[in-house]
Design brief:
Blueprint: E1 4-7, H1 18-28, E2 32-36, H2 39-42, H3 57-66, E3 70-74, H4 101-119, E4 129-133, H5 145-157, E5 164-169, H6 172-178, E6 184-189, H7 193-203, E7 210-215, H8 231-242, E8 246-250, E9 255-256, E10 264-266, E11 272-274, E12 278-279, H9 293-302, E13 322-331, H10 336-339, E14 344-346, E15 361-368, E16 372-380, E17 383-384, E18 386-391, E19 394-400, E20 407-411, E21 416-423, E22 439-440, E23 444-446, E24 449-450, E25 454-459, E26 479-487, E27 493-496, E28 502-507, E29 510-516, E30 523-526, E31 534-542, E32 551-555
Parallel strand pairs: 1-2, 1-8, 2-3, 3-4, 4-5, 5-6, 6-7, 7-8
Antiparallel strand pairs: 9-12, 10-11, 13-26, 13-32, 14-25, 15-21, 15-25, 16-20, 16-23, 17-22, 18-19, 18-21, 23-24, 26-31, 27-30, 27-32, 28-29, 28-31
Helix pairs in contact: 1-3, 8-9
């Protein structure tokens, strides 16, 4: 039987919006929705599990059923998905994705919690889950059949009765590393179905052709062009797939990597490529729920293979375009007493993971001896990923991973205080650097000398409601700004920050994600469920320097 599926990540769309997006996905002509399960969202700390809000996986299954959709579930433990660390929790020890007990023990604990919840919704038990994946694109990472068999057996032992599958790129390398005897093998590609399915058939002649990820769009990195794909070109590629087998659109519905959850890649030279906040993916149903030209092109093709439901009437509303003044300013370094989880004193620098921290910032402070009349370079070895540098409280520069090697610093007779505000961008989500550490990995030097004797404040930024806005503030460097958005009726909006450089935005305490003037993303999506009638708080953390007139703009359309 031909499966017609589209991917939607429940953790990238607010639960109040799930019915709208799922209804539109069904109207496109698919009968199934596919989703990953991000381990790091569901188990943020070892043994602490979350299944509410964006993590309400079972609520998503029920919403899909109400929309008339079956569900394909890909529970990891690794998901890629351009998601922070590929979904693997930052607290995991190494090695990863193999049958080492140090990895299997936490995997088994996670599966003990999540798999029975999935099993309860299987079609064999009156629910709508019809397929479950074993790992994800494992052939792109390693070759450990013992590990894959452990996962597959563990899924069955915990109650999975529906068909299992693997998914990999259609190459000899990936299919020989990622498949498992007795488990359906599927392929991931964006075009050339005849050739791709041919490679798959050569390895697995008994398996029905299934493109588990039809890459009909793509994701964006900061500082690179926005990706789009011609709808008619994608529709022709879809037709070629459906003439031969089953399909899952990746993505069917765009979404947002809220908070710190956008991941990263590295290019062929190892240069770091952080992913933008938007996961619109040039999908047929956009990040904000719009039906794009791709939707209509795909619906025409899918209509040849299935009966098409009616398209629901659009209920989309937009906030009026407006400017919001951000009058309050609060320097980050003036409120470490409320933001830090506790000052750590150490001889050498420590990574985020050694500090017990997953995301956010860390403030490192030490003294450079003096006098040193020559301007000697302060350099950070193993910077992950960006550091605002201050000397005696004065901004001296910015260091970036793969960027400038250091900042020149003179020191007077009494020495100078060196402060580094280190920001972690997304952890690499694909390839051999998955599982990388954040912060300062290999120390700080002034010319050839390592600097020791550090005070370190972890600043996870999990909650900005504690900010002391009535406090006098004078410090330079990263700072928070606050303003009020007045709303007559909650509706979607798109927040632009003209003149700002780099930072983060919160709306009513909810972390929308990162912005950066490197682009390509200009506006951040503000979903209507975050807003309330009347006053709404907007908080911006600007890392490098706000414009002279601190304000943001609500715009009527996205600019990605």
């Amino acid at each position: 039987m031909k499966v017609l599926s589209g991917a939607m990540h429940y953790f990238r769309t607010l639960p109040e919006q799930w019915p709208d997006r799922l209804g539109k996905l069904r109207a496109m002509g698919v009968d199934t929705v596919e989703t990953y399960v991000p381990w790091n969202l569901h188990e943020p700390h070892p043994g602490t599990f979350v299944f509410t809000g964006l993590a309400d996986m079972e609520g998503f299954f029920r919403a899909a059923g109400e929309a008339g959709l079956q569900v394909i579930v890909r529970p990891g433990p690794y998901i890629c998905a351009e998601w922070e660390n590929g979904g693997l929790p930052a607290w995991l020890p190494g090695p990863l994705r193999c049958h080492d007990p140090r990895f299997l023990e936490p995997v088994d604990r996670f599966f003990d919690e999540v798999i029975p919840r999935i099993a309860a919704h299987q079609a064999t038990r009156g629910g709508n889950v019809v397929m479950v994946q074993v790992e994800n694109e494992y052939g792109s990472y390693g070759t450990d059949p013992v590990y894959l068999r452990h996962l597959a057996d563990g899924l069955v032992r915990r109650g999975i009765e529906v068909p299992l599958f693997t998914s990999d790129g259609a190459t000899d390398l990936m299919l020989t590393g990622g498949t498992l005897p007795g488990v359906l093998a599927t392929a991931n590609f964006g075009s050339g179905a005849e050739r791709q399915f041919g490679v798959l058939a050569r390895h697995r002649p008994q398996d029905e052709p299934f493109c588990m990820e039809f890459w009909n769009g793509w994701f964006d990195h900061f500082g690179e062009p926005h990706h789009t794909r011609d709808p008619q070109d994608a529709a022709r590629a879809l037709e070629e797939i459906l003439e031969r087998g089953s399909v899952n659109f990746y993505m069917g519905v765009g979404g947002t990597s809220f908070g710190f959850f956008a991941g990263a890649n590295t290019d062929d030279e190892g240069v770091y490529q952080p992913t933008v906040t938007s996961y619109d993916y040039d999908a047929p149903i956009s990040e904000s729920g719009e039906l794009t030209p791709k939707f209509w092109a795909y619906r025409e093709v899918l209509g040849r293979y299935a009966e098409l439901p009616p398209v629901p009437e659009s209920t989309t509303t937009r906030l009026p375009e407006q400017r919001v003044e951000l009058g309050g300013r609060l320097a980050l370094l003036d409120c470490l007493d409320v933001l830090s989880t506790g000052t750590v004193r150490a001889a050498a620098t420590r990574t985020f993971e050694e500090l017990g921290q997953d995301y956010g910032l860390a403030v490192y402070r030490t003294r450079i001896p003096g006098p040193r009349e020559d301007a000697l370079e302060v350099s950070v070895r193993g910077l992950r990923d960006r550091a605002n540098v201050l000397v005696d409280g004065v901004v001296a520069g910015v260091l970036e991973r793969d960027g400038a090697s250091g900042v020149a610093v003179k020191t007077p007779a009494g020495g100078a205080e060196l402060t580094l505000v280190v920001e972690a961008m997304g952890r690499v989500n694909y390839g051999p650097l998955t599982g990388e550490r954040k912060g300062i990995l290999d120390g700080v030097r002034h010319e050839r000398q390592y600097l020791f004797g550090w005070e370190i404040d972890p600043v996870p930024l999990a909650d900005v409601s504690c900010l002391p806005w009535d406090r006098a503030t004078t410090a330079q460097g990263p700072a928070f700004y606050r303003g009020t958005l007045h709303v007559v009726r909650p509706a979607d909006g798109f927040l632009a920050l003209p003149g700002w450089v780099k930072g983060h935005v919160w709306v009513n305490g909810f972390h929308l994600g990162r912005y950066w003037d490197k682009g390509p993303q200009v506006t951040l999506y503000v979903p209507w469920p975050l807003l309330r009638e009347g006053a709404n708080e907007i908080v911006v953390l600007e890392m490098d320097g706000a414009p002279a007139h601190a304000s943001v703009e609500l715009r009527g359309e996205p600019q990605l």
